[in-house]
Amino acid sequence: MTPRRSAMWLVLLAAAGTFALTMGTRQTMGLFLSPLNTATGLGLGSISLAFAFGQLWWGLTQPFAGAMADKVGAGRVLLAGALLVALGTFITPLMTTTWGLILAIGVLSAGGAGMAGPAVLMAATTRLIPPERRGLAVGIVNAGGSFGQFVMAPIAAALMVGIGWVSAMQVMGLLVLLCLPAAFLLKGNSLQSAPAGQKVVGTREAIREVGVLGPGRRAGALRADQCAGGGGWRLVRSAGPAAPSGLVGSGAGSSLRSGRGHPDLPQNRQLPDTLAPQELP
């Protein structure tokens, strides 16, 4: 096996393993529902509220985690996410109120799982994997989450029988820390992967650029390229004629093109020459 191929599989193992640990640990929480209810006396409704809020918070966290990965790098976001999952899971048995469970399960654990979830993992993976292997990479990372649910549930059940539910849940939290080395392997952001002659901007700047220039008069193209890291937007300015406005699919993302040379678009705006010409795919 060549060094390049070995590195590719190491990246895939790191991403899939991280998803397996974070997702698997979160999905085992249902096994602790009955003892948690017995110990706290809060009732299934209050405990279910914490789990329901966690599902919502897990989804809401991921876009912000992707934007954060664009700025500070995927490795730091994954590191913070894994630590939050471990902390939230570890302190859950210590919570005796509804708000305490919402904090531990719904905010810390679920938010950390969102930061170390599929949005950041797939973006970081596709940035490090050759284009012809990105479909395989996305599939393997997704499979890691399913495999984690399959493996972690019997581990949690065995720990509950052997050492009790409180210690079992805390051990599950500590197991999440095994994915910390993956944060080093998946470090980097979209700035490090941008081709020469392209300016990488965040989502907010990309939207502002579109709003200022207006439809049909954009000085460049906005590319939602997931492989750039974190699912951010890439602004590409071209000094030459561009393709007509339209959506063009490509690999891990899509490009929104507009420019001069099309009869239906205004021709009275000069394109900036600050960057070298960039031919869009």
Q: Could you describe the 3D structure shown?
A:
The protein has 281 residues and is α+β, with helices and mostly antiparallel strands. It folds into two domains: 3-188, Growth Hormone, Chain: A; 192-257, no CATH class. The protein has eleven helices and five strands. The chain has helices at 3-27, 33-40, 44-72, 74-91, 98-115, 118-128, 134-163, 165-175, 180-185, 190-193, 203-213, and strands at 199-200, 220-225, 233-237, 246-250, 253-257. The protein has a five-stranded antiparallel sheet, covered by helices on one side. Strand 4 and strand 5 (253-257) form a beta hairpin. Helix 1 (3-27) packs across helix 7 (134-163), helix 6 (118-128) packs across helix 7 and helix 7 runs antiparallel to helix 8 (165-175). The longest helix is centred in the middle third of the chain and has 30 residues, at 134-163. It is globular. The two termini are 32 Å apart. The model is unreliable at 192-198 and 212-281 (pLDDT under 50).
Radius of gyration: 22 Å
Structural class: alpha+beta
Question: What is the count of distinct domains?
Answer: 2
- How is the biggest beta sheet arranged? 5 strands, antiparallel
Write out the CATH superfamily name of the largest domain: MFS general substrate transporter like domains
**CA(first)-CA(last) distance:** 32 Å
